[in-house]
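Many groups now describe folds with learned vocabularies. In that spirit, our science desk offers one protein's residues alongside their backbone shape tokens.
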Amino acid sequence: MKYLKMFGLAAVAVMAMALLGAGSASATVLCKENAIPCPEAKIYKAKTNVTATVEAKTSMVFKSTGGSTLDTCSGGRIEGETENVGKKGEAVKINLAQFSFFECTFATLVRELGPLEINYIGPETRGTFTLKKTKVTINTAFGSCVYGVGEPAIDIGTAKGTTETPATLSVLAVVSKFEGSVVCPTTVVWEASYDFTEPTPLYFKEGE
């Protein structure tokens, strides 16, 4: 039997696949148009709602680094509100309000939630999403598995704005086991593809 699970916050716990540290912010802003730099009048202000859902006809997957699937979810949602506008040397910070997994193989719960940030990396419309101090429990058939990331923040995926389709977030990250059954893999790969439903249009840019 599959489960429907919703939990307050957001982004799941994880370490970057390449185990990279968080990138340094470089005049990061969320922009309403594909312009370099983003004009002041086109920058999304603080308290802008940001929402992303798992791309249609795709699944979110947690699997061991050896390739065995641990958990699969047919959908999900990330939602939060920007804390700031962003500027040179400062990331755009999001206060996450919700992260939901739909129809997962096993019940999946966030135990500890950390902050989410967006850093512009270029060229043109790309930004990295970073996360820290987050833990997730997957209640598998062979016991509870707790995975997560501590500090410093870790890159979990790359977002891109395009003119033809909604902005996207591609996640490919590795999460380490903090505690749980001895049968649980020591590391798990998290894979997911998200489409941003708001704000639209959305580009990840440098500010003036």
